[in-house]
Amino acid sequence: MTVQPEPLDRIVQIADLHFWHVVRNPFRLLSKRFVGNLNVWLYRRHEFIMSRAEEFAKSVVATGIETALMTGDFTSTANRNEYRMAQAFVQGLKHEGLRIELVPGNHDVYTFYSARIRRFEKYMGEFMPAGGYPALRRLPGGTALLLVPTAVPQLLSSKGRISNADVARVAALLDQCPERVIVAGHYPLLAKTYAYAQHASHRLDNAQALQDVLGQSGRRVLYVCGHTHRFSYVQDTRYPNVAHLSTGAFFRSDPQQGLQGEFAEIHATHAGFTVFRHTHEKEWRRDSVDIQPLVRD
């Protein structure tokens, strides 16, 4: 039996809540929100069972872990009602004693209007780094956590983007990090793993530049994201010092896998990182996950 090293920090990663609200006022659907609202009506309201949120939050609290890393898509179309539900959920976790670290997802800036009026900042500002993103945080056990901005509004696609200026800022912040660092963004850096294959319209623009900065940093890096609604934990084939963790949506029903939700647990140790996957079928199950090759045979 393998003895796991004592963690310096334990982190719960929660991805892609997608709180949803159906908008029936046609005058509020004169933008990309029409497409998003249609998607909510046809799909998300059946996939994302919001009544599970509070019960599942209690399961997260029961782990005894003190830090929740939330990697975006708190909402489905960035409307006020969705944000109110998301804000209440995150405040509930904070009330239970969890330290909250978060980044926005593309659905949190779903329309140009919601981005322009800074709706994410209005509802989630109390949990954001004071200086915005990218931001370097220190967890209680000394682990470095680097929060990276990747979400931007788009007219039709679901693409993300990280600017060259932000990549340069990430590089400068990495120089301040110890040997091991967790880097968190909403979008994956890898377009394809054994668990998902992203269409070009859903990928992160300039991902290669960020991947190169992480790989050439001289640090052992765990890059953590959501967006795909699929779990994968893989080794970067170009940079052996970088691992990529994508976690499935927190309370999404996935009939193909027989799951009703999931979250990830990360242990930062002197030796590196250990990942556990929590999945809910009829009850919660916790499994240690070994890092996998990029694409399985």
Describe this structure in words.
The structure is a single chain. The chain has seven helices and 14 strands. The strands form three sheets. It has a six-stranded mixed beta sheet. Strands 4-5-7-9-11-10 form a six-stranded mixed beta sheet, with helices on one face. The chain is 24% helix and 24% strand. The chain has helices at residues 33-47, 53-62, 80-95, 112-116, 119-124, 164-174, 207-215; strands spanning 9-14, 67-70, 99-102, 135-138, 144-147, 160-161, 180-184, 204-205, 220-225, 232-235, 242-246, 261-269, 272-280, 284-289. A hairpin with a 6-residue loop joins strand 10 (232-235) and strand 11 (242-246). It is globular and about 45 Å long. It starts with 8 loop residues before the first strand and ends in an 8-residue tail after the last strand. With 297 residues, it is α/β, with parallel strands linked by helices.
Q: Which structural class do you get from the secondary structure elements?
A: alpha/beta
Distance between the termini: 28 Å
Average pLDDT, all residues: 91
Shape designation = globular
Rg is: 18 Å
